[in-house]
Amino acid sequence: MRLACCGMDCDACTYPGNCPGCREVCGKPFWTAYANIPVCKIFDCCANEHAWANCGKCPEVPCERYFANPDPYMSEEDAKKTLEKKMENLRSV
């Protein structure tokens, strides 16, 4: 499993494009253009500010950054399930 900083399993991503993963694109995955941000705030904090592989050891996870850019195409229930899966992934590493 290729794990993004936030706990997303990059190998399980269903984005139809050709995204190699957050770390490989330096925190600038496809969706940052839609959110009108230069870099993922979670990646920036985790990788750039703290030099961590992921947020798994952060005492604040999930922090406000996890809720800053919700997927407008995802229901609240699906967003909650996705967050739970991310937290599960982070606990497993």
From TrEMBL:
Pfam families: DUF3795 (PF12675)
Protein name per its UniProtKB record: DUF3795 domain-containing protein
Species of origin: Methanorbis furvi
Top-level taxonomy: Archaea, Methanobacteriati, Methanobacteriota, Stenosarchaea group, Methanomicrobia
